[in-house]
Amino acid sequence: MARLKVNSSSSLPLSTLAPKTLISKSHPVTAASMAKSPKAAAATTRRPTRKPRAASASAASAPPSADIEDLAVPASAAAAVRAGLLPWYDAHRRDLPWRFSAAPGREGKEERAYAVWVSEVMLQQTRVPVVVDYYSRWMARWPTVETLAAATQEEVNEMWAGLGYYRRARFLLEGAKQIAEKGEFPSTASTLRQVRGIGDYTAGAIASIAFNEVTPLVDGNVVRVLSRLFAIADNPKESSTVKRFWELAGQLVDPSRPGDFNQAMMELGATLCSKTKPGCSQCPVSSHCQALELSRENPSVGVTDYPRVVPKSKPRCDFAAVCVVEIAQCLEPDMADRRGKDNLFLMVKRPEQGLLAGLWEFPSVLVDESKTDLVNRRKEMDTYLKQLLGIDLKRTSDVILREDVGQHVHIFSHIRLTMNVELVILTVKVVDDVGRLCEKGQDNAELKLVDESSIDSMGLTSGIRKVYNMVKAFKMKKLPEQSPMPTRKRSRRQKQ
Length: 496
Fold this sequence. Notes:
The protein is α+β, with helices and mostly antiparallel strands. The chain is 42% helix and 12% strand. The protein has 20 helices and nine strands.
């Protein structure tokens, strides 16, 4: 088994440790010859846990990396990486609102810790330009962890609307309440991990950046930098590989400027060491990059072959019937405005657990793929409205208009949700029924009626906001303004 030994006893700089020669107990094999002969490489080295992606010929012929279990960073090599990376970060780091010098004392550190926490949670799965505006609005409203702890989940959801992955917002609020109750912001990675929603990465970021603890962090950007520095082709998603990335990051982190070093690693991965177009000629640590050296030795090997791309699992396909229900406040149907300017929208709160927990949406019910036609969708929706909300479209209300609006496909990380949208405008036959709609439905479902101005400012998910905008556009295009809406005397065919 060929293994690259990089141990802390070596005095060689990291640039000399690229695997030009992989040593086997039986015979030496050069990395260049392995790159030209993948079969020879496969015969003498440990196989990767998964094959490189088939779409990349260079990945298939890339020489094997060192055994990640044996990698260790010599002190001199770590010092060389720090010496190259930190001055580059000082000169080229982006000016971002959460990057500021903490005021002296414990209070200043806690202020910085809160800013780092909010920004890092927002930055998960979200691009920096999008986060900047959200962060600024958030901090203007809740400048301290104590002010956030006093907020409601609905207020937080409204501020978060559009960022997606709403569990992040829930965990921020729950964590803030936990910290406020304790009365002190945790200052070490180990104590930060005890806060609701704070994992290894966020704990490392807060502890190193705000409290100067010498502790590493590993995110997608850091994984990319480490994979290329050490030419690590192992599956970056496997727990054993993740563990070694954390160990390598811990050996590299600067003992005097841990926060700046961690940010520099992330900054390098986010800017120069990008996924598809790395700027190796401008990289401050390119002389230490084993992936770059391998690519120079063998044209079939590319820097972008590291880290290995692991195919994502195919998202499941769900289908939903979504009904935008408008309650005409005018009790006489023939006096109502077809545009529904004064109408109230019925909203349902999702359960407190699961996907999009605690968020408001229009009445929605999942349907089988085989029952996505209009007739079956309406049957499912009628049953839902009657059983859960107590609305019987045939007996307790006059349906003024019911139209199919269209379809919207919303992509979650693991779900492809096709929403079939219809609009129902109705009046209730009894005045008291309007107020009753605001009571809890069956299974304690929370309901509320909101007007158009309120719904415009609600913290709706991007998918539900899209549905609402579809309905608005449909009404503007299809329904003439201020045209009387007589009660529909529908035939059996029309009722379908």
